[in-house]
Structures are given as C-alpha cells and as structure tokens.
Amino acid sequence: TGARRQTVERAVPLDAIFKAYHMVERRHPDYQGCDALSDILASGRSSRLYRRLVIEKKLFTEIDCSITGDIEPGLFLLRAKLSPGVSLEQGDEAIEEELRRVQEQVLEKRELDKVVNRFESNDLFSNLHYLNKATNLAYYELLGDAENIDKEVDRYKKLTPGDLQRIASTLFVPENSSTLWYKSVSVPQGATMKNF
After folding, report:
1. Which residue intervals of 61-173 are DSSP H helices?
2. Do the Cβ atoms of 41 and 171 come closer than 8 Å?
3. What's the Cα-to-Cα distance from 150 to each of 115, 133, 173, rounded to whole Å?
4. Which of 115, 120, 146, 191 has its CA 20 to 30 A from that of 93?
5. Helix, strand, or coil (residue 187)
C-alpha cells in the first residue's frame, strides 16, 4: 500500500541503489512486456538507463535490470552502483526520472524491435540442442502446455510501444516499490571487515 525504503551502511567500495517492483506471474499476458521493459531499460550499452545515466550523465558506474518469477508473481529488479561523488538522493532521482519518462512517453518502435529480435535469436539458439529443447518443453508443460514453446516468440512480436507504456504506468508506481540504499562507509583504522 506504500513505498518501502531502507538504508544500510556497509564497508563496500561504492554506494548502490537497489529497487524492486512487484510484477505479474509467468503466465500473465503482461509478463513478456515486463521482460521487454527490463531489456530496453538496462540490457547492454545501448539501453536507455546505461546510455543516459552511465555514459551521458556519468552518475553510475553500472546499472542493470532483470525480472524474476515463474508460476508465482515475481519482481522487476533494478541495481545500480553510483559514481564517486554522486549522492544516493541524486542517483535515485535520476532513476525515477527515467522511469517516469517510460510511463509518460511512448517508446520508439526500434527500441522494442531490437529487444524482440534479440529474444527471437536467443530462443532459437536455446532450442538447438536436444537436452535444452527437452528442458524447455518440460518447463512449458509445467506452466500448463508444452505447445506454448512455439508461441513465445509471437507473444513478444505482438507487443507494441503502447503496451509497454501501459505496463510501465502500473509497474513503476511508488506504492509498488521497495528501495534499498546501500551506503558505503569506511572501515575504522584497526578494525577488520569481519568485526565492523
């Protein structure tokens, strides 16, 4: 019912921000959209968050998104390590600004096409070997129907920029989030990492 926040202090090299948003289960029609959003936002050097926050603004040294969840609902996870001298507040606001942009502006079709093409390629290669194919078939049978293995790529191809904007508008809301600020502190002289 409300945003959850926590700050911890540890003897780590850099400050970091971790965000988690509750998302749908694997069989939900919006699952593929959540997966596509995670890739558009932070998969590779040409992704939105990496390009804008790491390369252009130099606020972070690295940033990444991923999703979890199978039969049960999962999480949309975002992890970012701040550049030296950048405050946690400044980094968090920059992330929130980019997430708002995805909610308010329709994505470019080419961004979605790039992600869908990558998924199709990975899907093809993941089913080349007999063991992988058997494992994937068993997984889809566990989800309800082994024949859905042949429909997965089509589900991604049917996604539209408008679908992703709609999903982002319900996913990236404060009431659906948990944020952890991982604050770097120096180890007092004479202390060890173990007893600090």
Report:
1. 88-104, 109-126, 130-143, 152-157, 161-171
2. no
3. 18, 11, 33
4. 115
5. coil
Dist CA 89 CA 96 (whole Å): 11
Segment (H or E) for 77: strand 75-82
Residue range 91-119, pLDDT digits in tens: 999 999 999 999 999 999 999 999 999 99
Separation between Cα atoms, residue 8 and residue 36, nearest integer Å: 31
- Residue 165, token pair as written in the block: 């904007």
Location of structure tokens 């049960």? 72
Q: Is the pLDDT of residue 51 over 90?
A: yes
pLDDT value at 193 more than 60: no
Q: 3-class DSSP state for residue 60?
A: strand
Q: Read off the pLDDT of residues 67-88 as tens digits, 9 standing for 90 and up.
A: 997 789 999 999 999 999 999 9
pLDDT at 196: 42
